[in-house]
Design a protein that fits this description.
With 405 residues, the protein is an alpha+beta fold. It has 15 helices and 13 strands. It has a domain of 278 residues: set domain protein methyltransferase, domain 1 (Alpha-Beta Complex). The strands form 6 sheets. Strands 3-8-7 form a 3-stranded antiparallel beta sheet. The chain has a two-stranded antiparallel ribbon with strand order 1-2. Strands 4-5 form a two-stranded antiparallel ribbon. This is SET domain-containing protein.
Length: 405
């Protein structure tokens, strides 16, 4: 991670004065320009990244570092013919400076200290991720603006490097050179000073702020302590208020959700990404850590041998109300209806029983009842609902004469 170059760059910082640092020398007698600061690799949510450390204690209000204008790179107007945005121009300037080489020793070492394209990819920076990884992350609606912005930035750099090379007045740059410059600019820029590169000052990581990075009207960039910082403590600043999704999309940062803040991903987005394969690229592995921090763990799949859950008991039906006993029927002249109904079932008379007992398909009667039933049936009129066949109409011949078939 260019750690050696970063340590060497600290030795090239301009001398500090009591007015800028709050002290002229530290306890060991070293110049506070580089003796008060150190650099190391630390772990942030499972991602190893470079960090700027305090090698001595600082009090709130102390100026920890001041960079003069010649140690700050800002977008110039010379590349406006190639780029439409300051981020593109600044990235192209940085790539050109690396291609030319030589020049100010401070900037030579500063360029060496920035992560390479391969290191940026290993850090999980989305801007240098593959198109396949972007398409997978874009399955979540919350990451679709990130994918669109990255494609737009890559397209801008591709067009810019093409126009840059056609001018034939600069060292030849590849698209990888231009993309590296843009990625360094995007991941190193924060605060309210506009698009710029301020080596060492932009090594401050994003977290709960204990320092503030600011710029004055003279073009100086300053790192000022906002609270007391112990010796060995990491210098951190609050980059912005983009939230977890915004900072992951731009910097590859895995940021915790603020207390009371809304969940950065919906449950549907969490499920889509949790079911996808997230082990192929560093940006996907970083996204998996992001999901582990902001999404609930998916439940285990049901075992095929597990017993099916017992169905919920059906609600008990209300007990039916007791039916009232039918009113006794009046007797006819020679037949007691109730007497026949009380006879034990011995035989059934289909059809006939309907005439005797009403709408009951089969009513049992005893054999001894035949002598009573049959005389009554003989006196009943024919059934009116039994259809009779209509007489067949005579057919006519083709000549109109009637004939019998």
């Amino acid at each position: 991670m260019a750690l050696k170059a970063a340590q060497q760059l600290l030795q090239l910082l301009p001398p500090a004065t009591p007015e800028t640092s709050g002290t002229s020398h530290n306890e060991s007698g070293e110049d506070p320009a580089y003796g008060d600061l150190g650099v190391a690799v630390v772990d942030h949510h499972g991602i190893r990244t470079r960090a700027l450390l305090a090698r001595k204690g600082f009090h709130a209000g102390d100026t920890i570092l001041t960079l003069p204008p010649n140690h700050v790179l800002r977008a110039s107007g010379t590349d406006r013919e190639f780029c439409r945005s300051d981020a593109c121009r600044l990235g192209l300037q940085l790539a050109e400076a690396r291609a030319k080489g030589g020049g100010d020793p401070f900037w030579q070492k500063a360029i060496e200290a920035y992560p390479s394209l391969k290191e940026l990819e290993a850090l999980g920076v989305p801007l240098v991720a593959s198109e396949k990884a972007l398409a997978l992350l874009a399955q979540a609606p919350e990451f679709q603006p990130m994918a669109a912005k990255i494609r737009q930035s890559r397209g801008e750099m591709l067009a810019a490097v093409g126009a840059y090379n056609r001018a034939k007045v600069h060292p030849h740059l590849t698209f990888a050179d231009a993309l590296w410059g843009r990625a360094v600019v995007e991941t190193s820029n924060f605060g309210n000073c506009g698009w710029q590169l301020a080596p060492v000052a932009d090594w401050v990581n994003h977290s709960a702020a204990n320092v503030q990075v600011s710029c004055d009207t003279d073009g100086n960039v300053k790192v000022i302590a906002e609270k007391d910082i112990p010796s060995g403590g990491e210098l951190t600043a609050s980059y912005n208020k983009l939230g977890p999704v915004g900072n992951f999309s731009r910097y590859g940062i895995i940021q915790e959700r603020q207390d009371g803040g809304a969940a950065p991903l919906s449950s549907g987005s969490c499920m889509r990404l949790q079911l996808a394969s997230m082990d192929n690229e560093p940006v996907l592995r970083a996204a998996r850590k992001f999901l582990g921090l902001h999404c609930a763990a998916p439940g285990p799949p049901p075992s095929p041998n597990a017993a099916a859950p017992a169905p919920a008991p059906a609600p008990k039906a209300a007990a039916p109300e007791p039916r009232a006993a039918p009113a006794p029927r009046e007797p006819t002249a020679d037949l007691q209806w109730g007497t026949i109904q009380q006879i034990q079932p011995m035989t059934q008379i289909p059809g006939i029983s309907n005439l005797l007992y009403g709408p009951r398909p089969y009513v049992p009667v005893a054999a001894t009842a035949w002598n009573t039933v049959m005389p009554v049936m003989a006196t009943l009129p024919p059934l009116p609902w039994i259809p009779t066949s209509p007489p067949e109409a005579p057919r006519r011949s083709r000549r109109g004469r009637e004939f019998l078939s």
